[in-house]
C-alpha cells in the first residue's frame, strides 16, 4: 500500500526520516525520499499500519514538522480524458519550460545523472583505478574458488598463487576524452516513459530514466539532460522531442503502478560513424481504441521527423513494439512493426559495415568495441588454418572482423533477428567463410563443432551477463582441438563460475583436460559507471597435469 508523506523538510534524507519514523513506532515496509523533495513515498504492508501512522502524524510533530499522509494514487489521479485535454496547453508550456529553462544544477537533473552516470563525480584515472581493483578481486576469487575444488593440487600452476589473481591483468584500456568514446558514448539508450512528480504533487508525462527501482518504491521518471554524460547527445535530443509529444498525446503514458497507459518505453539506437538513427517505441495496447492508436502513432512519426529535422538529426527508422506484459524488458521475441523507414540502422567497425535490427545486440560503445577487437585479434594468434567459434555472436561483429585472417568462422546466436542481420552483414562485407547457427549455444555447440574443418579451433565466448551455461563449459573442455579460448565478460563477477568450470581438474563431470588463465585485460566500455568489459585468455594445459 503506497502513500505519500507531505510536509517533509527537503533537507531530510531517507535514512534520517526512516529513523525518525521508527522512533515514533511507525511500521512500514520501505521509504523513498530524495534530497530536495518535500514529500516522501512510503510503503505499508496493511491499511492498519497506514492508519496508525496517520494517527501518530496528527498527534505529534516529527522533527518539528506536521506530517500528513495521503494515498499515493492521489498524486497521480487518473484524469478523465476531457480534463486531460484541457490541461494540455498548460502542460506543453510547462514542458518547454522545464526543457529549456531548468537550472542546470537542479536536483532532478543531478539525480537522473547520478542514476545513469553514477561515477561522474570520480576523476577518470580514479574510475580506471577502481575498475582495476574490481577486476583483480575477481581474478583472485577465481584462484580461491579453484583451490577449493577437489583435486586442485594436481594443477601445478595454481600452487604458487596463494591468494593472488589467477593471471596477470595487463591493463584496463581507457577511453580518450572525446564525445563518443568517454563522453556521451552509448549508441543504445533505453528511455522509460512515465511520470515525474513535482513538489506540488502534480505529475507530468516524462521520457527519461527511472530514478530508482520500482520494487523499492520509486515510481518517478526524470527527463534526460546533458548531465547524463553516458547518453549520446542525439538520443538526449530525441528523448526530449518524444517527451514534448507525449505530453500532448491523446494516449496516456504508462503508469507502472496500475499497469495502465499506452506509451511505455523508447529506445534510441545510432550508428556513430554512419549517423543513422533508429527509434523503437514500446507501447501497451490493451484497452485502447485501434483508431486512436493508429492516429497517434502516425502523429508521433510526423512530430519526431519534423522536430528532429529542425535540429539536423536524421531518423532513419521508427518501429513500434506492442508489449502488454508487466516486465520492463524489451522482449526479443515480439517483432516490432515498422512505422517509418527501415527497421534497422548501420554502424561501421574495423572498416566493415554492420546492419543492426532494433532487437539485435551491438557493443554499446563503438570506439571501445574496436579496442576490444584489437585485443581479440592479437590474443587469438590466428592463422589461415584456424577455425573461429564465435559463441553468442549477435550480428556477427567479432567473427566477421576475424574472418579474413582464418579458414572458417562458425557463429551461434540465440536471437533470430540478429542471425538474419549477421547473414546480411556477411553478404554486405563479402565474407564467404562464415556460417551462423540460430539457437542457444548449449543446444547448437555440438553441431557447430561437427562443422569445423580445422584442427586448430579458437573459441571466443561473448555471453550475456549471466555467463555461459555449465553444459557449454563441459562441451568446450571435451573438444580437444580447442587449445585457446578468449572469454569476454560484460559482468566480470559472473566469470568466476565459468572460469572455475574451465580450469578445475579433470573429473567425471568435467572430462576434458583443463584450461589455464593466461592473461586478462579490462576494456572501459562504460565510462562513468562501475561496469567494465573483461577479456581473459585461457590456454589448454595438457602438459601441466601431473
Ligand atoms: C554480449 S552479447 C555479444 C554479441 C556479439 N558477440 C557482439 O560482439 O556483438 C551476447 C549475445 O548473446 C546472445 N545470447 C544470449 N543467450 C544466448 C544463448 N543461450 N545462446 C546463444 N546466444 C545467446 C544475445 O542475444 C546477444 O546477442
Automatic annotation (TrEMBL):
Keywords: Methyltransferase, S-adenosyl-L-methionine, Transferase
Gene3D superfamilies the record matches: 2.40.50.1070, Vaccinia Virus protein VP39 (3.40.50.150)
SUPFAM superfamilies the UniProt entry points to: RNA-binding domain, RBD (SSF54928), S-adenosyl-L-methionine-dependent methyltransferases (SSF53335)
Residues the record lists as binding S-adenosyl-L-methionine: 363, 413, 462
Active-site annotation: 490 (nucleophile), 490
Pfam families on file: tRNA_U5-meth_tr (PF05958)
GO molecular function: RNA binding; RNA methyltransferase activity; S-adenosylmethionine-dependent methyltransferase activity
InterPro entries according to UniProt: MeTrfase_TrmA_AS (IPR030390), MeTrfase_TrmA_CS (IPR030391), RBD_domain_sf (IPR035979), SAM-dependent_MTases_sf (IPR029063), TRM2_met (IPR045850), U5_MeTrfase_fam (IPR010280)
Domain of life: Eukaryota
GO biological process, alphabetically ordered: methylation; RNA modification; RNA processing
UniProt record similarity statement: Belongs to the class I-like SAM-binding methyltransferase superfamily. RNA M5U methyltransferase family.
Identification of the protein by name: Methyltransferase
Organism lineage string: Eukaryota, Rhodophyta, Bangiophyceae, Galdieriales, Galdieriaceae
Amino acid at each position: 500500500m503506497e502513500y505519500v508523506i507531505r510536509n517533509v523538510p527537503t533537507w531530510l534524507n531517507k535514512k534520517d526520516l526512516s529513523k525518525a519514523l521508527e522512533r515514533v513506532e511507525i511500521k512500514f515496509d520501505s521509504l523513498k525520499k530524495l534530497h530536495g523533495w518535500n514529500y516522501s513515498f512510503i510503503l505499508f504492508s496493511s491499511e492498519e499500519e497506514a492508519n496508525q501512522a496517520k494517527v501518530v502524524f496528527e498527534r505529534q510533530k516529527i522533527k518539528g514538522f506536521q506530517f500528513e499522509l495521503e494515498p499515493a494514487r492521489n498524486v497521480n489521479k487518473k484524469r478523465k480524458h476531457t480534463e486531460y485535454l484541457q490541461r494540455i496547453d498548460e502542460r506543453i508550456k510547462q514542458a518547454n519550460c522545464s526543457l529549456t529553462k531548468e537550472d542546470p544544477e537542479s536536483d532532478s537533473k543531478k539525480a537522473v545523472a547520478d542514476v545513469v552516470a553514477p561515477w561522474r563525480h570520480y576523476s577518470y584515472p580514479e574510475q580506471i583505478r577502481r575498475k582495476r581493483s574490481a577486476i583483480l578481486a575477481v581474478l583472485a576469487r577465481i584462484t580461491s574458488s579453484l583451490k577449493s575444488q577437489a583435486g586442485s593440487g594436481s594443477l601445478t600452476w595454481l600452487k604458487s598463487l596463494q591468494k593472488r589473481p589467477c593471471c596477470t591483468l595487463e591493463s584496463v584500456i581507457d577511453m580518450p576524452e572525446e564525445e563518443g568514446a568517454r563522453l556521451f558514448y552509448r549508441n543504445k539508450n533505453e528511455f522509460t516513459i512515465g511520470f515525474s512528480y513535482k513538489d506540488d504533487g502534480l505529475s507530468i508525462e516524462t521520457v527519461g530514466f527511472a530514478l530508482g527501482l520500482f520494487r523499492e518504491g520509486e515510481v518517478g521518471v526524470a527527463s534526460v539532460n546533458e548531465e547524463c554524460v553516458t547518453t549520446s547527445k542525439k538520443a538526449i535530443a530525441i528523448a526530449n522531442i518524444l517527451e514534448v509529444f507525449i505530453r500532448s498525446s491523446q494516449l496516456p503514458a504508462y503508469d507502472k503502478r496500475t499497469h495502465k497507459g499506452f506509451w511505455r518505453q523508447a529506445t534510441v539506437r545510432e550508428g556513430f560513424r554512419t549517423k543513422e538513427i533508429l527509434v523503437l517505441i514500446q507501447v501497451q495496447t490493451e484497452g485502447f481504441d485501434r483508431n486512436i492508436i493508429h492516429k497517434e502513432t502516425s502523429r508521433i512519426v510526423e512530430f519526431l521527423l519534423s522536430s528532429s529535422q529542425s535540429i539536423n538529426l536524421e531518423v532513419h527508422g521508427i518501429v513500434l513494439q506492442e508489449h502488454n506484459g508487466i516486465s520492463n524488458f524489451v522482449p526479443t521475441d515480439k517483432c516490432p512493426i515498422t512505422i517509418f523507414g527501415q527497421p534497422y540502422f548501420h554502424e561501421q567497425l574495423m572498416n566493415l559495415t554492420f546492419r543492426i535490427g532494433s532487437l539485435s545486440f551491438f557493443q554499446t560503445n563503438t570506439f571501445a568495441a574496436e579496442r576490444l577487437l584489437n585485443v581479440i585479434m592479437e590474443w587469438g594468434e590466428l592463422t589461415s588454418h584456424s577455425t573461429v567459434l564465435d559463441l553468442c555472436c549477435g550480428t556477427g561483429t567479432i567473427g566477421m572482423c576475424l574472418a579474413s585472417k582464418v579458414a572458417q568462422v562458425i557463429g551461434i546466436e540465440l536471437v533470430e533477428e540478429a542471425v538474419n542481420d549477421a547473414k546480411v552483414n556477411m553478404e554486405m562485407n563479402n565474407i564467404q567463410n562464415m556460417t551462423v547457427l540460430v539457437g542457444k549455444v548449449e543446444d547448437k555447440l555440438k553441431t557447430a563443432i561437427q562443422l569445423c574443418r580445422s584442427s586448430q579451433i579458437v573459441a571466443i565466448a561473448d555471453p550475456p551477463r549471466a555467463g555461459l551455461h555449465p553444459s557449454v563449459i563441459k562441451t568446450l573442455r571435451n573438444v580437444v582441438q580447442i587449445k585457446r579460448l578468449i572469454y569476454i565478460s560484460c559482468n566480470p563477477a559472473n566469470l568466476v563460475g565459468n572460469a572455475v568450470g574451465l580450469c578445475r581438474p579433470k573429473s567425471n563431470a568435467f572430462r576434458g583436460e583443463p584450461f589455464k588463465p593466461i592473461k586478462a585485460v579490462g576494456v572501459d566500455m562504460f565510462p562513468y559507471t562501475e561496469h567494465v568489459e573483461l577479456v581473459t585468455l585461457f590456454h589448454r594445459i595438457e602438459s601441466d597435469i601431473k
